Amino acid sequence: MGRRPRDQGADRAxxxxxxDRLLAGTPLRSSSGKLTASELITESGxxxxxxxxxxxxxxxxxxxxxxQDSTPTAMQELADANRALKAEAAELRTELAEERxxxxxxxxxxxxxxxxxxxAKAELGAAAxxxxxxxxxxxxxxxxxx
Length: 146
Fold this sequence. Notes:
Helix content is 68%, strand content 0%. The chain has helices spanning 8-24, 37-44, 48-52, 55-67, 73-128. Helix 1 crosses helix 2 (37-44). The model has no long low-confidence stretch (mean pLDDT 85).
């Protein structure tokens, strides 16, 4: 009782499909999408020894990857989008820092003006010699007659 022989046709089809997906930039199993033999093995879902048993397919994949400048079009588009988003994020960080700086200045101005207002109220009360009654919102209003 031996093991069943491997289906060479299915293995070759899996390797070809993995190579096509990697070269198109749409990997299913590969996390990086790089055009390397290791990523081809990962993408195919086969063992390393089985993939390297089909050296012609591995060499074909490597030649196609080299002809494609080793960067799939989809991966290049993602890299460009990533660069644009990083630039936008840096710009937003700069704007945020400027806004925080302006807010800090405004808080200081508000604090100083509040102190000045309290001092002015105290001086006004002391100068007039009149005690101020606290305002009561629930006090009944009387109609003034002039």
